[in-house]
Design a protein that fits this description.
Uridine Diphospho-n-acetylenolpyruvylglucosamine Reductase, domain 1; Uridine Diphospho-n-acetylenolpyruvylglucosamine Reductase, domain 2; Uridine Diphospho-n-acetylenolpyruvylglucosamine Reductase, domain 3; 4-stranded mixed sheet; alpha+beta
């Protein structure tokens, strides 16, 4: 039996639960450790009398601009297991509240390949399919098998396979038409054993760093270490400077428009996409060309080493960071005619 009134907390400060460290309070707050607890909360009068609900994982992709006048459910479901082993691969099942990078390290330790390029991405396992997280030529959907979730509309446990998640670039069904309906409880990945996994070293500075380290025959662990090194050199540690990593998505534009931009900006970095007739443009480059890199606006700032990252150096409010983001979007559109979409959820 759960003592429901003891499970709910009132007017809880959320700054320590998000990587931006913004001061904002939740009117109602509860931590979820298992399905039974979630079901009990779902049946409670507190839950059913509250209109606004928000699921909070690692808080690494969320910006609060004000207090949240509703219920925040913090995901604390843990557990990692290795199942369905074959000659070539293993199914890895992880609780949605597990730290993403810790999962990557555990898989690397077990010499299982597929998510090593996603090392040091902040957040929890449960957020990974919502965002279809990606980095250095790899996306979550490449190894994703299925997930288990609690349906807030029916109170039932449901399952989604890869196709049903409707993955896109930093997108999934859970970010649009099914937003807020499901509480993801666990995620399954199929990872490859040594000898059956092809390392992805084609993106960014991976090969360059490996050469500098004099590594000619890299392992899964070498790739993970390289990614950690690259990300650490570019991105601020949120424990030191509040941030949510990349604040904007890299815009995808049609090839003809991209070529027009390249005619005037031949050094503009572009990448292939999975959508025929489209190219992806480096948002950080666009922002930097507009003069924002290292600049501040009020108490909010753009990181000096990576223009994609907006920071809270200490006393910024959520509104200040939002205003900075809007000014960046405005200047990029005026200069290049490109709309920047936020990757961070603004509450």
């Amino acid at each position: 039996m759960f003592y429901l009134h003891a499970m709910f907390q009132h007017y809880i400060q959320l700054s320590s639960f998000t990587t931006f460290g913004i001061h904002a309070k939740a009117k109602l707050f509860a931590e979820i450790h298992n399905h039974d607890q979630l079901l009990a909360i779902w049946k409670s009068s507190e839950y059913n009398s509250t209109n606004n609900k928000l699921i909070l994982g690692g808080g690494s992709n969320m910006l609060f601009t004000k207090d949240f006048e509703g219920l925040v459910l913090r995901n604390k479901i843990t557990g990692i297991s290795f199942e369905d082993e074959s000659e070539q691969s293993v199914i890895v099942t992880a609780g949605s509240g597990e730290n993403w990078h810790e999962l990557v390290l555990k898989c690397v330790e077990n010499k299982l390949g597929g998510i090593e390029n996603l090392s040091l991405i902040p957040g929890t396992v449960g957020a990974s399919p919502v965002q279809n997280i990606g980095a250095y030529g790899v996306e979550l959907k490449d190894t994703f098998v299925s997930l288990e979730a609690f349906d807030f509309e029916t109170g039932q446990i449901v399952h989604f396979n890869n196709e049903e998640c409707e993955f896109g670039y930093r997108d999934s069904i859970f970010k649009n038409k099914a937003k807020g309906r499901y509480f993801i409880s666990s995620v399954n990945f199929r990872l490859k054993k040594p000898g059956f996994h092809k390392l992805n070293m084609s993106y960014g500075a991976i090969n360059q760093v490996l050469q500098e380290m004099e590594i000619s025959m890299p392992t899964i662990r070498d790739i993970s270490n390289t990614i950690v090194s690259i990300r650490s050199s570019k991105l601020p540690n949120p424990k030191v400077i509040g941030n949510a990593g990349s604040f904007f998505k890299n815009p995808e534009v049609d090839e003809s428009f991209c070529q027009l931009l390249l005619n005037d900006n031949p050094l503009m970095p572009t990448y292939s996409t999975q959508i025929a007739g489209f190219r992806k443009i480096a948002a950080g480059w666009l922002i930097e060309q507009c003069g924002w890199k290292g600049k501040s606006l009020g108490n909010a700032a753009v990181h000096k080493n990576q223009a994609l990252v907006l920071t809270n150096p200490g006393n910024a409010t959520g509104e200040e960071i939002k205003h900075l983001a809007e000014e960046i979007q405005k200047s990029v559109f005026e200069k290049f005619g490109v709309n920047l979409e936020t990757e961070v959820n603004i509450i």
